[in-house]
């Protein structure tokens, strides 16, 4: 734009004596336009780089038609979107600092990336050198005294060799190596969403997290009559050494699908980041992971959402026990339901929990009626969504006085009578803060007869008189319709 302004300035010089005011006006307008354009770019670029998304179709096809425009030959391939984004962040640290959120998919499939060195074209040497040199901004942490005896070739000690493997992966175009580099370039990242097609996020990302966030020591503890060796003293919890990665991470989302086997062991180091406040997991396997959670430092975690994550109750209880500052808990379980281990761990959060949602699909299994959820001691609980079978038949005995919003799902034909008892308790001042009550009938087991509908409709007006908004409806597989 500035070049256009200069060009027009020269073109109009010979006419300036005849139309001097017009030339000045054109030059002034174009310069204003240039300044506006530069200002817009200055403002827009950080916003455009604040979010980055990598999907499974991120990579360009690695075939003979994938040519560098500058050379027009088959020697090198073009950069993928991820590689171009990384190059921009390397050259523009100011834009790297503006990255706040990333969603990353399909970067840990090593079966695909290992074939790059034989069947696919490499990147041009300048780009490769740029990526490799950028890894030197992350110095390897010094080895712990207890580990200094380990030899360089010891497979159990990767402290001195993991970066060499990382750089070799960058030279070969491994997506896992590139994502590890990306993690080191975004100091202000606040939200990270990852998906995996494997048991973890790849060896190079694993090594980066292990070295930058992992434990500095371990100790033996006794947990439920078991002697367990657990990690302690995580680098990410150090008050004196600033983190080189994820120093501002607050929200972590981890997703896979039921056919994969992403395990909690593969993400444990990410959870130790002291700034992390929210963890959302979908189809992440938590079976037999108790050792990972017994003393993992998770007191900073405030929100935990587990959607259809396979868990044994001992491991799930240990995870909740470790999350000592937990305020919001949402769990959807499949093929299992809470037992004494779960309820015991949940009661440990009675002084912190503010919202609670418990959903489960236990198929044909018969609910154990001894597993009653007594939440009366949860002094800060404001909102709760829970199944009828988890509560005592005398609802008011299971509920805390702090409750403001209550949703009870999968209700059977006996439930309207229990709701009537609850109404009497509300009128007597037993639940002084309650403002909203939602009842979701189990449509698979209950027919909405005219009598039931009439009774619920009558309760609706009674609750309204008591100052409580009452809604009811039917539910099939969590797809619910309510009546105002």
Automatic annotation (TrEMBL):
Basic and acidic residues: compositionally biased ranges: 7-21
Keyword Isomerase among record annotations: no
Keywords from the UniProt entry: Hydrolase
An example Gene Ontology molecular-function term: hydrolase activity
Chain positions covered by the region annotation Disordered: 1-21
Name under which the protein is recorded: Glycoside hydrolase
Species this protein is from: Aureobasidium pullulans (Black yeast)
Lineage: Eukaryota, Fungi, Dikarya, Ascomycota, Pezizomycotina
């Amino acid at each position: 734009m500035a070049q256009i302004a200069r060009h027009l300035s020269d073109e109009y010089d010979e006419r300036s004596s005849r139309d001097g005011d017009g030339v000045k006006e054109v030059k002034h307008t174009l310069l204003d336009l240039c300044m506006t354009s530069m200002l817009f770019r200055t403002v827009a670029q950080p916003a455009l780089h604040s979010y980055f998304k990598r999907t499974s179709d991120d990579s360009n096809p690695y075939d003979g038609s994938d040519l560098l425009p500058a050379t027009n030959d088959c020697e090198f391939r073009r950069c993928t979107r991820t590689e171009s984004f990384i190059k921009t962040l390397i050259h523009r640290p100011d834009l790297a600092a503006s990255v706040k959120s990333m969603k990353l998919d399909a970067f840990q499939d090593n079966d695909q990336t290992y074939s790059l060195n034989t069947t696919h074209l490499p990147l041009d040497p300048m780009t490769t050198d740029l990526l490799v040199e950028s890894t030197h901004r992350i110095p390897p942490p010094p080895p712990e005294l207890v580990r200094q005896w380990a030899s360089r070739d010891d497979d159990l000690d990767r402290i001195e060799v993991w970066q060499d493997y990382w750089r070799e992966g960058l030279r070969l175009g491994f997506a896992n190596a590139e994502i590890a580099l990306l993690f080191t370039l975004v100091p202000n990242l606040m939200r990270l969403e990852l998906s995996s097609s494997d048991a973890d996020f790849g060896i190079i990302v694993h090594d980066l997290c292990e070295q930058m966030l992992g434990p500095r020591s371990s100790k033996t503890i006794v947990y439920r009559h078991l002697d367990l060796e657990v990690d302690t003293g995580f680098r990410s919890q150090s008050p004196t050494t600033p983190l080189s990665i994820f120093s501002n991470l607050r929200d972590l989302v981890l997703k896979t699908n039921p056919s994969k086997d992403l395990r909690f062991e593969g993400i444990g180091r990410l959870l130790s980041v002291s700034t992390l406040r929210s963890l959302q997991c979908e189809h992440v396997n938590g079976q037999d992971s108790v050792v990972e959670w017994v003393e993992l430092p998770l007191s900073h975690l405030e929100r935990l959402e587990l959607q259809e994550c396979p868990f044994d109750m001992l491991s799930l209880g240990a995870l909740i026990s470790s999350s000592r500052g937990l305020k919001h808990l949402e769990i959807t379980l499949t093929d299992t339901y809470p037992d004494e281990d779960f309820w015991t761990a949940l009661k440990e959060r009675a002084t912190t929990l503010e919202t609670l949602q418990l959903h489960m699909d236990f198929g044909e299994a018969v609910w154990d009626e001894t597993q009653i959820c007594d939440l009366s001691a949860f002094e800060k609980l404001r909102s709760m969504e829970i199944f009828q079978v988890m509560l005592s038949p005398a609802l008011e005995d299971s509920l805390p006085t702090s409750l403001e919003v209550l949703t009870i799902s999968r209700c059977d034909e006996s439930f309207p009578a229990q709701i009537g008892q609850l109404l009497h308790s509300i009128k007597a001042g037993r639940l002084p803060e309650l403002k909203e009550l939602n009842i979701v009938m189990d449509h698979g087991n209950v027919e909405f007869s005219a009598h039931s509908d009439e009774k619920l409709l009558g309760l609706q007006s009674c609750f309204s008189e008591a100052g409580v908004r009452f809604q009811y409806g039917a539910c099939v597989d969590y797809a619910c319709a309510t009546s105002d």
